[in-house]
Protein backbone atom coordinates (compact mmCIF):
# COMPACT_ATOMS: atom_id res chain seq x y z
CA UNK A 1 0.00 0.00 0.00
CA UNK A 2 1.40 3.37 -0.98
CA UNK A 3 -0.03 6.14 1.23
CA UNK A 4 0.35 9.73 -0.05
CA UNK A 5 -0.55 12.50 2.40
CA UNK A 6 -1.13 15.97 0.97
CA UNK A 7 -1.63 19.19 2.93
CA UNK A 8 -5.16 20.00 1.85
CA UNK A 9 -8.06 18.52 -0.12
CA UNK A 10 -7.18 20.51 -3.25
CA UNK A 11 -3.67 19.05 -3.34
CA UNK A 12 -5.03 15.54 -2.72
CA UNK A 13 -7.49 15.88 -5.59
CA UNK A 14 -4.80 17.19 -7.92
CA UNK A 15 -2.54 14.25 -7.03
CA UNK A 16 -5.37 11.78 -7.63
CA UNK A 17 -6.07 13.55 -10.95
CA UNK A 18 -2.39 13.16 -11.88
CA UNK A 19 -2.59 9.42 -11.22
CA UNK A 20 -5.78 8.92 -13.25
CA UNK A 21 -4.57 11.03 -16.17
CA UNK A 22 -1.19 9.30 -16.10
CA UNK A 23 -2.95 5.92 -16.42
CA UNK A 24 -5.19 7.09 -19.28
CA UNK A 25 -2.30 8.68 -21.17
CA UNK A 26 -0.14 5.56 -20.73
CA UNK A 27 -2.95 3.35 -22.02
CA UNK A 28 -5.64 5.21 -24.00
CA UNK A 29 -7.78 2.05 -24.16
CA UNK A 30 -7.67 1.77 -20.39
CA UNK A 31 -10.53 0.24 -18.40
CA UNK A 32 -11.37 2.54 -15.50
CA UNK A 33 -13.37 1.54 -12.44
CA UNK A 34 -15.33 4.59 -11.28
CA UNK A 35 -16.90 5.63 -7.97
CA UNK A 36 -19.58 8.13 -6.96
CA UNK A 37 -20.12 10.14 -3.76
CA UNK A 38 -19.20 13.61 -2.59
CA UNK A 39 -15.43 12.98 -2.49
CA UNK A 40 -15.37 12.14 -6.20
CA UNK A 41 -17.08 15.30 -7.46
CA UNK A 42 -13.96 17.53 -7.32
CA UNK A 43 -11.91 14.70 -8.85
CA UNK A 44 -14.30 14.58 -11.82
CA UNK A 45 -14.06 18.39 -12.06
CA UNK A 46 -10.26 18.07 -12.13
CA UNK A 47 -10.39 15.46 -14.93
CA UNK A 48 -12.90 17.53 -16.92
CA UNK A 49 -10.61 20.58 -16.61
CA UNK A 50 -7.66 18.57 -17.98
CA UNK A 51 -9.91 17.32 -20.81
CA UNK A 52 -11.13 20.86 -21.61
CA UNK A 53 -7.55 22.10 -21.67
CA UNK A 54 -6.76 19.49 -24.33
CA UNK A 55 -4.45 17.57 -22.01
CA UNK A 56 -6.51 14.40 -21.66
CA UNK A 57 -8.83 12.32 -23.82
CA UNK A 58 -11.10 9.51 -22.68
CA UNK A 59 -12.12 8.62 -26.25
CA UNK A 60 -10.55 5.16 -26.07
CA UNK A 61 -11.46 4.37 -22.48
CA UNK A 62 -14.03 1.96 -21.07
CA UNK A 63 -15.61 2.55 -17.66
CA UNK A 64 -17.35 0.39 -15.08
CA UNK A 65 -18.93 2.00 -12.03
CA UNK A 66 -18.84 0.32 -8.67
CA UNK A 67 -22.49 0.33 -7.80
CA UNK A 68 -26.11 1.41 -8.23
CA UNK A 69 -29.13 1.48 -5.93
CA UNK A 70 -31.62 -1.35 -6.41
CA UNK A 71 -34.98 0.03 -7.55
CA UNK A 72 -33.77 3.27 -9.11
CA UNK A 73 -34.16 3.75 -12.88
CA UNK A 74 -31.23 5.38 -14.73
CA UNK A 75 -33.11 8.68 -15.03
CA UNK A 76 -34.01 8.84 -11.31
CA UNK A 77 -32.50 12.10 -9.98
CA UNK A 78 -30.67 10.20 -7.19
CA UNK A 79 -29.44 7.30 -9.32
CA UNK A 80 -25.72 6.85 -9.87
CA UNK A 81 -26.45 6.73 -13.62
CA UNK A 82 -27.67 10.32 -13.33
CA UNK A 83 -24.77 11.31 -11.05
CA UNK A 84 -22.24 9.98 -13.56
CA UNK A 85 -23.85 11.70 -16.54
CA UNK A 86 -23.86 15.04 -14.73
CA UNK A 87 -20.48 14.77 -13.03
CA UNK A 88 -18.46 13.20 -15.85
CA UNK A 89 -19.93 11.36 -18.83
CA UNK A 90 -21.68 14.36 -20.44
CA UNK A 91 -18.61 16.56 -19.92
CA UNK A 92 -15.87 14.53 -21.60
CA UNK A 93 -15.27 12.65 -24.87
CA UNK A 94 -16.01 9.17 -23.49
CA UNK A 95 -17.88 6.86 -25.88
CA UNK A 96 -21.16 6.39 -23.96
CA UNK A 97 -21.45 2.85 -25.37
CA UNK A 98 -18.37 1.94 -23.34
CA UNK A 99 -19.64 3.35 -20.01
CA UNK A 100 -21.19 0.78 -17.70
CA UNK A 101 -23.21 0.84 -14.50
CA UNK A 102 -25.33 -1.94 -13.08
CA UNK A 103 -29.06 -1.40 -13.73
CA UNK A 104 -30.95 -1.03 -10.46
CA UNK A 105 -34.45 -1.21 -11.93
CA UNK A 106 -34.38 -4.71 -13.45
CA UNK A 107 -36.70 -7.57 -12.50
CA UNK A 108 -33.75 -9.81 -11.58
CA UNK A 109 -31.08 -7.70 -9.79
CA UNK A 110 -29.01 -10.76 -8.86
CA UNK A 111 -28.92 -11.84 -12.53
CA UNK A 112 -27.91 -8.28 -13.44
CA UNK A 113 -25.10 -8.45 -10.85
CA UNK A 114 -23.75 -11.72 -12.27
CA UNK A 115 -23.98 -10.33 -15.80
CA UNK A 116 -22.11 -7.17 -14.73
CA UNK A 117 -19.24 -9.22 -13.30
CA UNK A 118 -19.10 -11.12 -16.62
CA UNK A 119 -19.00 -7.87 -18.59
CA UNK A 120 -16.00 -6.67 -16.55
CA UNK A 121 -14.19 -9.93 -17.29
CA UNK A 122 -15.06 -9.74 -21.00
CA UNK A 123 -13.64 -6.20 -21.14
CA UNK A 124 -10.32 -7.63 -19.93
CA UNK A 125 -10.68 -6.57 -16.27
CA UNK A 126 -10.21 -3.18 -14.65
CA UNK A 127 -6.87 -1.41 -15.11
CA UNK A 128 -7.36 1.31 -12.48
CA UNK A 129 -10.10 1.12 -9.88
CA UNK A 130 -10.93 4.49 -8.30
CA UNK A 131 -12.43 4.26 -4.81
CA UNK A 132 -13.80 6.38 -1.99
CA UNK A 133 -14.29 5.07 1.54
CA UNK A 134 -17.34 5.12 3.80
CA UNK A 135 -17.06 6.20 7.43
CA UNK A 136 -17.68 2.57 8.36
CA UNK A 137 -14.86 1.35 6.13
CA UNK A 138 -16.95 0.31 3.13
CA UNK A 139 -15.58 0.36 -0.42
CA UNK A 140 -18.14 0.34 -3.20
CA UNK A 141 -21.15 -0.73 -1.17
CA UNK A 142 -19.26 -3.58 0.46
CA UNK A 143 -20.43 -2.89 3.98
CA UNK A 144 -18.74 -4.24 7.13
CA UNK A 145 -18.96 -8.08 7.23
CA UNK A 146 -18.83 -8.25 3.40
CA UNK A 147 -16.83 -11.31 2.44
CA UNK A 148 -13.34 -10.46 1.25
CA UNK A 149 -13.94 -13.01 -1.51
CA UNK A 150 -17.20 -11.42 -2.68
CA UNK A 151 -18.15 -10.75 -6.30
CA UNK A 152 -20.78 -8.43 -7.80
CA UNK A 153 -24.04 -8.96 -5.94
CA UNK A 154 -26.84 -7.30 -3.99
CA UNK A 155 -25.83 -5.81 -0.64
CA UNK A 156 -28.07 -4.53 2.14
CA UNK A 157 -26.98 -1.02 3.14
CA UNK A 158 -26.35 -0.32 6.81
CA UNK A 159 -28.37 2.38 8.55
CA UNK A 160 -25.11 4.33 8.93
CA UNK A 161 -24.59 4.39 5.15
CA UNK A 162 -28.26 5.16 4.51
CA UNK A 163 -28.01 8.09 6.95
CA UNK A 164 -24.86 9.35 5.18
CA UNK A 165 -26.65 9.16 1.80
CA UNK A 166 -29.98 10.49 3.06
CA UNK A 167 -28.87 14.01 2.03
CA UNK A 168 -29.63 13.11 -1.60
CA UNK A 169 -33.15 11.81 -0.88
CA UNK A 170 -36.19 13.45 0.71
CA UNK A 171 -36.14 11.22 3.80
CA UNK A 172 -34.37 8.30 5.47
CA UNK A 173 -37.30 6.01 4.53
CA UNK A 174 -36.87 6.93 0.85
CA UNK A 175 -33.14 6.20 0.94
CA UNK A 176 -32.70 2.81 -0.77
CA UNK A 177 -31.98 -0.25 1.39
CA UNK A 178 -30.20 -2.31 -1.25
CA UNK A 179 -27.53 -1.75 -3.87
CA UNK A 180 -25.83 -3.80 -6.56
CA UNK A 181 -22.12 -3.49 -5.88
CA UNK A 182 -19.02 -5.06 -7.34
CA UNK A 183 -17.40 -7.30 -4.73
CA UNK A 184 -14.27 -6.96 -2.64
CA UNK A 185 -12.58 -9.69 -4.72
CA UNK A 186 -13.66 -7.91 -7.91
CA UNK A 187 -11.95 -4.75 -6.61
CA UNK A 188 -8.82 -6.71 -5.68
CA UNK A 189 -8.69 -8.08 -9.25
CA UNK A 190 -8.08 -4.57 -10.63
CA UNK A 191 -4.49 -4.15 -11.82
CA UNK A 192 -4.18 -0.96 -9.74
CA UNK A 193 -6.40 0.78 -7.19
CA UNK A 194 -6.55 4.44 -6.17
CA UNK A 195 -8.48 5.35 -3.03
CA UNK A 196 -9.11 9.05 -2.36
CA UNK A 197 -10.25 10.26 1.07
CA UNK A 198 -10.52 13.84 2.27
CA UNK A 199 -11.67 15.35 5.55
CA UNK A 200 -11.47 14.39 9.20
CA UNK A 201 -14.77 12.49 9.06
CA UNK A 202 -12.87 9.75 7.20
CA UNK A 203 -9.85 9.66 9.55
CA UNK A 204 -10.96 6.73 11.67
CA UNK A 205 -11.96 4.58 8.68
CA UNK A 206 -8.65 5.44 6.97
CA UNK A 207 -6.66 4.37 10.05
CA UNK A 208 -8.54 1.05 10.20
CA UNK A 209 -7.93 0.50 6.48
CA UNK A 210 -4.21 1.24 6.62
CA UNK A 211 -3.15 0.19 10.12
CA UNK A 212 -5.92 -2.07 11.37
CA UNK A 213 -6.14 -5.85 11.07
CA UNK A 214 -7.19 -7.30 7.73
CA UNK A 215 -10.84 -7.90 8.49
CA UNK A 216 -14.29 -8.02 6.92
CA UNK A 217 -15.25 -5.60 9.72
CA UNK A 218 -13.42 -2.98 7.62
CA UNK A 219 -13.74 -4.07 3.96
CA UNK A 220 -11.27 -1.36 2.85
CA UNK A 221 -8.55 -3.19 4.83
CA UNK A 222 -8.62 -5.77 2.00
CA UNK A 223 -6.56 -3.24 0.02
CA UNK A 224 -3.63 -4.23 2.28
CA UNK A 225 -3.52 -7.38 0.13
CA UNK A 226 -3.34 -5.49 -3.17
CA UNK A 227 0.15 -5.29 -4.72
CA UNK A 228 -0.54 -1.93 -6.41
CA UNK A 229 -2.83 0.07 -4.10
CA UNK A 230 -2.36 3.83 -3.74
CA UNK A 231 -4.17 5.78 -1.02
CA UNK A 232 -4.32 9.57 -1.49
CA UNK A 233 -5.26 11.54 1.64
CA UNK A 234 -5.44 15.11 2.79
CA UNK A 235 -4.17 15.99 6.27
CA UNK A 236 -7.66 15.65 7.78
CA UNK A 237 -8.24 12.13 6.46
CA UNK A 238 -4.71 11.15 7.58
CA UNK A 239 -5.08 12.63 11.07
CA UNK A 240 -5.69 9.32 12.92
CA UNK A 241 -2.72 7.50 11.36
CA UNK A 242 0.05 6.80 13.89
C1 LIG B 1 -20.09 4.95 -4.25
C2 LIG B 1 -19.01 4.39 -3.47
C3 LIG B 1 -18.94 4.61 -1.99
C4 LIG B 1 -18.40 6.00 -1.67
C5 LIG B 1 -18.31 6.20 -0.16
C6 LIG B 1 -17.83 7.59 0.21
O1 LIG B 1 -19.93 4.62 -5.63
O2 LIG B 1 -18.20 3.75 -4.00
O3 LIG B 1 -18.08 3.64 -1.44
O4 LIG B 1 -17.12 6.17 -2.23
O5 LIG B 1 -19.58 5.98 0.41
O6 LIG B 1 -18.80 8.52 -0.15
P1 LIG B 1 -18.55 10.09 0.07
O7 LIG B 1 -17.46 10.47 -0.82
O8 LIG B 1 -19.87 10.73 -0.30
O9 LIG B 1 -18.23 10.26 1.50
Automatic annotation (TrEMBL):
Gene3D superfamilies listed in its UniProt record: 3.40.50.1360
List of catalytic residues: 67 (proton acceptor), 136 (for ring-opening step), 138 (proton acceptor), 143 (for ring-opening step)
Enzyme Commission no: 3.5.99.6
Keywords for this protein: Carbohydrate metabolism, Hydrolase
SUPFAM superfamilies membership: NagB/RpiA/CoA transferase-like
GO biological process terms held by the UniProt record: carbohydrate metabolic process; glucosamine catabolic process; N-acetylglucosamine catabolic process; N-acetylneuraminate catabolic process
Domain (Glucosamine/galactosamine-6-phosphate isomerase): residue spans on this chain: 13-225
GO molecular function, one term: identical protein binding
PROSITE patterns referenced in this protein's UniProt entry, alphabetically: GLC_GALNAC_ISOMERASE
Gene Ontology annotations for the cellular component aspect, listed alphabetically: cytoplasm
Pathway the protein acts in: Amino-sugar metabolism; N-acetylneuraminate degradation; D-fructose 6-phosphate from N-acetylneuraminate: step 5/5
Database matches in Pfam families: Glucosamine_iso
Catalytic activity: alpha-D-glucosamine 6-phosphate + H2O = beta-D-fructose 6-phosphate + NH4(+)
Function: Catalyzes the reversible isomerization-deamination of glucosamine 6-phosphate (GlcN6P) to form fructose 6-phosphate (Fru6P) and ammonium ion.
Similarity field: Belongs to the glucosamine/galactosamine-6-phosphate isomerase family. NagB subfamily.
Protein name, as recorded: Glucosamine-6-phosphate deaminase
Source organism of this protein record: Jannaschia rubra
Gene behind this protein: nagB
Amino acid sequence: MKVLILNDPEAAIERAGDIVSGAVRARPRTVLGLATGGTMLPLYDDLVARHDAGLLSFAGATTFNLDEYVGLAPDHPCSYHRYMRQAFFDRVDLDRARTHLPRGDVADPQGEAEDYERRITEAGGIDLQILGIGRNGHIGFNEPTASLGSRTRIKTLTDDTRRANQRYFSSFEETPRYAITIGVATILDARATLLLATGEAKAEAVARMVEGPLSAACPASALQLHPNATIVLDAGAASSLT
